[in-house]
Amino acid sequence: MEKPMQAVLMVAGKSTRTFPLTLTRPKPLLPIMNRPLIYHSLDQLAGLFDEIILITGYRKEMIEARLGNEYRGMKIIYQEQKKQLGTGHALLQAKPHIHDKFVAMNGDDIFARIDLEHILTYEYAVLVKQVQNPALYGVYQVDEKNRVLNLVEKPKEFIGDLANIGCYVLQADFFEELENTALSERGEIEVTSAVYSMAQKRDIYAIPIQGFWLPTGFSWDLLNHQQLLMKDVQSDIKGVIEQGVLLKGPVSVGVNTTIKSGVYIEGPVVIGDNCEIGPNCYLRPYTAIGDNCRIGQSVEIKCSLIMPDCFIQHLSYVGDSIVGQGSRLGAGTITANRRHDGESPRSKIRGVLVDTRRDKMGAILGDGVQTGIHTAIYPGRKIWPNMQTSPGAIVDDDMIPNDFTW
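Below the sequence we write its predicted structure tokens.
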């Protein structure tokens, strides 16, 4: 009997860099175009693999409830990583399920199907990407045949530009290498350490990607991914479009959704089921609005991700922003998305400002946020779940509960 082709997706981490969004859900369930991130990843795997082994941990029950035991013909197997002790430790949890050749990958990233097909033609290989800032990555050094010679984490001097991007084709004997791998300086077992060790014993090929690689390290990466993936949106109207509505470009409207008179939508835009939009709204490209949302009169939304069950009241502006599930934005709420000096907006990660590398970046609101009327939010600011602002509030720093601990 032919052995099933298997892929291991490592999705156990808590992901504090995507707080406040991942305070209430695991990162694989963050939405892109109204579908969980992990669905987009699995879509690229469908037809290539028979079994998917998910290494889960943080809020694992939510992933299991959403995915079930099968996705597009692929069997889903769950294996818990009870303590997060590195990528190598996560991969070791899959050992009881592995038969032979398999692919291991970061489950929060989306890899292009074309590259997965290519890497499967090898016995041992890693996907790499040429990058302009190799000091931020683990970098492979290779010979003239692209065989791995060395791997250096975040090199201080230039040694090459082939970055490790977290996708490997391996054999079952790789687990023995992992079990004999010394702990890193962080006290963790790293896949990359075992890859380097194995490369001293057999040929491992570094394969440059031909398609896309969409890593999800920060909340704003969801907006970047959505913009790229929306190029495939097709017009699909299942709801009610009143007279006086103008649709330009591809627009998808869900069941029982009503688009009221005077609404102008520039696609690509995706709107879920049971929504009420308008009247007189302006929805701009690369916007996704989840199920059961109400968008009030004269609201403008641009390049944003609105999760289900939200109510954005009249005369509000939401630009380049993420609005968590069940949030309610009072009338006249404004998310500023551009700095006065024209520099790329920055956002705090554990108290440290990080460059979003976006021309424009608005707000990131956790689930259940409520803003008072005429609230103004500075670019890149975050509001933790279920917090409220007063009428006329100016949010110039992240809003985090006083008793919150990382």
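The chain has a mean pLDDT of 95.
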